[in-house]
Amino acid sequence: MLSAERGEPVEAVIRDGIALLRREQWRRKAEIDARAAAADPDDRAEVASVLRDLAG
User: Fold this and answer.
1) Are 35 and 26 in contact, with CB atoms under 8 Å apart?
2) Is 9:16 a contact under the CB 8 Å cutoff?
3) How many domains does the chain have?
4) What is the mean predicted confidence (pLDDT) over 27-39?
5) SS3 36
6) For the chain, is the Cβ count within 10 Å smaller at the N or the C terminus?
């Protein structure tokens, strides 16, 4: 059992698993959003403008 391998209570393993799942869901959504933004000319122009402003 994973909890025995890790030397942690089952609750800690479940909590870690849920946290990992949430991070993965966030990462997938961010990837989808980034691809959509990259495909949108207006979004690309806005990003380029922000980067120019940051570069000074």
Assistant:
1) no
2) no
3) 1
4) 95
5) helix
6) C
Q: What's the sign of the alpha-carbon dihedral 33, 35, 41, 43?
A: positive
Residue pair 3/12 in contact (Cβ under 8 Å)? The answer is yes
Specify the pLDDT at position 22. 98
44 with 38: CB under 8 angstroms? yes
Amino acid at 2: L
Rounded CA-CA distance 45/56 in Å is 17
Cα 3 to the center of its chain, rounded Å: 26
Q: What is the pTM of this model?
A: 0.65
- Say how many Å lie between the first and final Cα of the chain, rounded: 55
- Cα–Cα distance between 8 and 14 in angstroms, integer? 10
